[in-house]
Specification:
Helix Hairpins; about 425 residues; alpha/beta; 18 helices; about 10% strand; 3 domains; Nucleotidyltransferase, domain 5
């Protein structure tokens, strides 16, 4: 691919205007200009690149700071070889051309083009992402946003109950449980709790399959001495709770729809063809990943959508770096520091954290690794990162061999 590249283009993207700078293979300027953001502007950008370079799109390499977005997608659809670089690396490369700290769109576009010409190893070649993976990524992020919204509404509901009806708070650790919401709608005030029939409460508990409470104990708890509040407070809190519950039920319904889409799309990912024509076995089998302890629909969707290439290549080192479990070493003279990796996708880091947290509860080997790390004086988060690193290695090995997880299998160190 490198031998066929005849021109290099740097694109400094922005929200309103994008600036492009074109160079030939010897670093000579071919042209530069700005383009507005929009359908016409992006189409003009692709046409300008073809005309100023005089080359076919497959012979033109384009450098840009972001690996996603409409600019990247439009250039990839046009057939150009798009490469992405981290903004921090671009900032360091800019110091080659100016030590005074100058910065503008034209300079950034030139730095992108020239550094891609001379230091292509710093760039990451972008491949088209399958539409199923894009849809899975979007639904995964929507479910995460809905979960956060659910927690916010549940906390607001709890605050209103704390003001006038704290007995309901003590019924469950999760105040957004369906049966708690149904119970509140049935007895929204302590006064209603004194008049409700025991048979009515028994039917609600039976319908919701609640075994922690019986009708007698639940009514006795709700009828305990209420809080004395000022006139009008109870009515105001009830009105506020009604508004919160309407939004909360909508969010919970949308979460159910989102979870169904995650299950459907995760199963569809298994049927996608391999991205490597020379290696048809580099496919991702969600069932193998799902067999691992700690992986549920949300974690599985995050792994398949936020790091699809690393999972398909079974590249444990890249997956560790992307998820933040691989530490960063800083060594200079007598100074030696091992710090947590900060530059990684937040959603993938969170998914691996919860994956390790649940695995410690259900997997014997993960629990032993966590205990060993804690005995050495490491923090809870550091120990979970070590567990996550081991689980990523196990997952890649399972994908390579095509085997499901066996909790009774001994690790290689113990077997030896």
């Amino acid at each position: 691919m490198e031998n066929t590249i005849a021109a290099y283009v740097g694109v400094d993207w922005a929200s309103a205007t994008h600036y492009a700078y074109a160079l030939d293979v010897d670093g000579e300027k071919l042209g530069h200009r700005a383009f507005s953001h929009g359908g016409d502007g992006l189409a003009e950008l692709a046409s300008w690149i073809r005309s100023v370079t005089g080359q076919e799109p497959e012979n033109v390499a384009v450098g840009i700071e972001v690996p996603h977005g409409p600019v990247v997608e439009h250039l990839m659809d046009a057939g150009f070889l798009v490469h992405a670089i981290n903004p921090k690396q671009l900032d360091r490369l800019r110091d080659r051309f100016t030590v005074a700290g100058a910065k503008d769109d034209r300079l950034d576009a030139y730095v992108l083009a020239d550094s891609l010409r001379t230091d292509a190893r710093f760039y990451r070649f972008l491949r088209p992402v399958h539409p199923t993976v894009i849809e899975l990524r979007e639904w995964s992020r929507m479910v995460e946003d809905l979960s956060a919204e659910r927690n916010r509404l549940a906390n607001r509901f709890r605050h209103q109950l704390w003001r006038y009806y704290p007995q309901v708070i003590e019924l469950s650790e999760d105040w957004a449980r369906g049966w708690v919401l149904d119970l509140w709608e049935l007895v929204p005030t302590p006064a209603k709790a004194r008049n409700v029939r025991q048979a009515t409460i028994a039917r609600l508990l039976k319908r919701c399959r609640v075994r922690k409470w019986t009708a007698d104990t639940l009514l006795a708890h709700l009828r305990s001495t209420p809080i004395s509040v000022a006139p009008g407070v109870t009515e105001a809190c009830v009105a506020h709770c009604e508004v919160i519950l309407a939004r909360l039920r909508l969010v919970m319904q949308q979460m159910k729809i989102g979870m169904k889409h995650l299950e459907r799309l995760c199963a569809a990912v298994a049927e996608l063809p391999s991205t490597e024509p020379t290696d048809p076995d580099t496919r991702c089998d969600p069932e193998i990943l799902r067999s691992l302890p700690g992986i549920g629909p949300i974690v599985l969707a995050a792994l398949l959508s936020e790091a699809p290439e690393a999972v398909r290549r079974r590249d444990a080192n890249v997956l560790r770096a992307l998820s933040g479990v691989a530490p960063v070493t800083r060594r200079s003279g007598k100074q030696y520091i091992v710090a947590m990796r900060q530059s990684c996708p937040y959603r993938l880091r969170t998914a691996v954290f919860h994956w390790a947290r649940i695995a410690v509860l259900h997997d014997f080997h993960s629990r032993n690794r966590y205990s060993d790390m804690r005995k050495r004086g490491h923090s809870h988060a550091r120990a979970l990162r070590s567990v996550g690193s081991r689980l990523i290695g196990v997952a890649c090995a399972m994908l390579e061999s095509g085997e499901l997880f066996d909790k009774d299998r001994k690790p290689q160190v113990l077997a030896a």
